[in-house]
Every structure is written in structure tokens, then in C-alpha cells.
């Protein structure tokens, strides 16, 4: 029987996950297809019932459901509980188990340019499900993390949650104040801002991306992969910074998902080669 997997998101149709996962299934000889499940919030309950009855063997969770999906799962692993967000669901004979592979994806992506994150300072823009996972991954590696978000309370909440878990001071504040920071090792853009193609020229976050601001960092990472060359990455490249583009985190988090679903090591090169992002 052909197993079914997919991505739960809204919108989902532009996702690159199907191309990457289908190439991986083919490469290792597993009979499976990976589809898009574009579901509105009011239909999530129906979708979860469908996963169990069809059955769908597992699915990725993307924007904007990484936190909301927790209400629908039967079990979550310890890291999902700590992070407060889930991007991977495994259907174990009708029991839906939640995992998070974003934190590993972010660390492995950064490791391409920084081998050891221990003691490094990082500024994270955004306080959604992805930011939570990235902050967790970096803190676990021993990095110092500051989180800034348009909605300040959300940044503070992450900082408070993780201060308790990691037993150390973590700053959470308003995006407007990110200007005030001194030099830092790593800047991570983890909002969904560039994905909204309309009117982003007037967006407040763009104002932060001046040469003067970006110059405060040694490494610049953007999690957005459409477009791959975001305005931030462009500025960073012009300044000859080390950059990590959104395709890297996409790849590494997908590889770990593949391993969780199949128990087989992911064919990383095949997955990277399948991505049309170059
Ligand atoms: P994800 O699962 O990818 O983290 P999310 O949970 O929907 O997605 O979070 C999106 C993040 O992008 C949030 O931090 C959001 O800020 P708010 O918490 O204030 O909503 C941020 N974001 C989205 N559009 C933005 C914009 N135009 N300017 C600044 N931040 C933005």
C-alpha cells in the first residue's frame, strides 16, 4: 500500500516540502506520497479525524498551526512541550504523536557557518512557533538569546518560559527596540514578513534592515525561503557577512522529519538537489 504524508498549512500550495519529501521517498524506495493539506482553522478537527481514518501516516505542520495543533494531538514529546510548538506529527496506529524538528534544523543550518554555538550571542526577530523552536535550539547549544517581536508580550512570554527551562536570563522585547542592541554574533529573521508580497516596502521591519543595523552582526540567517534572496540576506551579502538562507533550515528540519516517519536516515543530498531553490 502507498503510504500518505503531507503538509498541513494555510496557505500550503506554495510549499516546497512535497518536492523534497517525494524525492526522498523515491530515493530510498519507500512507497509513499507527500501532498499538501491546505486547511482553514475551522476545519482542523475534520482534518485530524481524516488523518486517523484514512489513514495518513504523518504530516508536517507549518504556518500558522504550529502552536494550535497541540490541542489536537494525543501525545507530544518532551521537546514539543518545552518549545510549545510542533512541526511534525507521526500517526502511530491512530495515536497522533507530535515532535519538533525545527530546532535541530535551525542549529544544523547555522552549523554550516558556525561550528560551535556555545557562548555565541543571537538576536531573534519574531515570536511565533518557528522562533520558539529556534530559540530553544540555540539555548540548548549554550548560545545567549534575545528575542524581539512586533507584539512585545509574545517575545516576553517566550523569554519567561525559556528562562525557567534553561535557568538563565533571556531578554524578550519589542521589535522597535532592537535598534538599541550592541554588536552581536548572529541575527535570525524568523518572522513571516517577506512572505507577504503586498506592501512590504512599507513594512516596519524593513526599516530595521539598514546597513548600520545589519553591520552589528557577523552571521545573518533568514528562515524565509520564498523569496530565497530576502531583502535582509541581500543587505548582509552586500556587507560580506556570513549568511544562512531559508533553504537550509527547510532541508535539515525535513531530513529529521523523514527519519521520524520512516526510521530511515534521510538522503540529504537528494533532498537538497530536489529543491528548486538554488
Ligand atoms: P511561524 O509558525 O512561522 O513562527 P507564526 O506563528 O504565524 O508563524 O508567527 C509569525 C511571526 O511573524 C510573529 O512573530 C509575527 O509577529 P506578531 O507576533 O506581532 O504577529 C511576525 N510577523 C508577521 N508579519 C510581520 C510584520 N509585517 N512585521 C513584523 N513581524 C511580523
Characteristic terms for this protein:
6-stranded parallel β-sheet, 278 residues, 12 strands, 6-stranded mixed β-sheet
Number of helices: 10
Mean pLDDT: 94
Number-wise, the strands total 12
Structural class: alpha/beta
The neighbouring-strand order within the major sheet is 2-1-3-5-6-4
**Euclidean distance between termini CA atoms:** 34 Å
Q: Strand content of the residues, in percent?
A: 15-25%
- Helix and strand pattern: EHEHEEHEEHEHEHEEHEHEHH
Radius of gyration: 18 Å
Descriptive notes:
- The chain is α/β, with parallel strands linked by helices and 278 residues long.
- Helix content is 36%, strand content 22%.
- The protein is built from ten helices and twelve strands.
- The strands form two sheets. It has a six-stranded mixed sheet with strand order 2-1-3-5-6-4, with helices on both faces. A six-stranded parallel sheet has the order 9-8-7-10-11-12, with helices on both faces.
- Helix 5 links the parallel strand 7 and strand 8.
- Helix 1 crosses helix 9 and helix 4 packs across helix 9.
- It is globular.
- The mean pLDDT is 94.
- The site of 2'-monophosphoadenosine-5'-diphosphate has 19 residues, from helix 5.
- 2'-monophosphoadenosine-5'-diphosphate binds next to helix 5.
Amino acid at each position: 500500500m502507498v503510504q500518505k504524508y503531507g503538509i498541513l498549512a494555510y496557505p500550503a500550495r506554495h510549499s516546497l516540502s512535497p518536492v523534497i519529501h517525494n524525492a526522498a521517498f523515491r530515493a530510498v524506495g519507500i512507497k509513499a506520497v507527500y501532498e499538501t493539506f491546505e486547511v482553514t482553522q475551522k476545519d482542523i478537527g475534520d482534518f485530524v479525524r481524516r488523518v486517523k481514518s484514512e489513514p495518513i501516516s504523518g504530516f508536517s505542520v507549518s504556518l500558522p498551526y504550529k502552536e494550535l495543533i497541540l490541542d489536537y494531538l494525543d501525545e507530544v514529546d518532551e521537546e514539543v512541550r518545552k518549545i510549545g510548538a510542533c512541526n511534525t506529527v507521526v500517526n502511530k496506529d491512530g495515536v497522533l504523536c507530535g515532535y519538533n524538528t525545527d530546532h535541530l534544523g535551525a542549529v544544523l543550518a547555522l552549523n554550516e557557518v558556525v561550528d560551535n554555538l556555545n557562548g555565541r550571542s543571537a538576536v531573534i526577530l519574531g515570536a511565533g512557533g518557528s522562533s520558539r523552536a529556534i530559540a530553544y535550539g540555540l539555548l540548548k547549544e549554550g548560545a545567549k538569546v534575545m528575542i524581539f517581536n512586533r507584539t512585545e508580550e509574545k517575545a516576553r512570554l517566550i523569554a519567561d518560559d525559556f528562562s525557567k527551562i534553561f535557568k538563565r536570563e533571556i531578554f524578550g522585547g519589542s521589535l522597535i527596540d532592537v535598534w538599541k542592541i550592541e554588536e552581536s554574533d548572529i541575527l535570525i529573521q524568523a518572522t513571516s514578513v517577506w512572505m507577504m508580497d503586498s506592501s512590504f516596502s512599507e513594512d516596519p521591519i524593513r526599516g530595521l534592515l539598514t546597513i548600520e543595523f545589519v553591520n552589528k552582526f557577523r552571521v545573518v540567517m533568514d528562515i524565509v525561503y520564498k523569496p530565497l534572496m530576502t531583502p535582509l540576506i541581500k543587505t548582509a551579502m552586500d556587507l560580506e557577512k556570513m549568511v544562512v538562507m531559508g533553504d537550509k533550515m527547510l532541508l535539515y528540519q525535513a531530513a529529521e522529519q523523514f527519519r521520524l516517519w520512516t526510521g530511515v536516515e534521510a538522503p540529504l543530498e537528494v533532498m537538497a538537489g530536489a529543491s528548486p531553490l538554488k
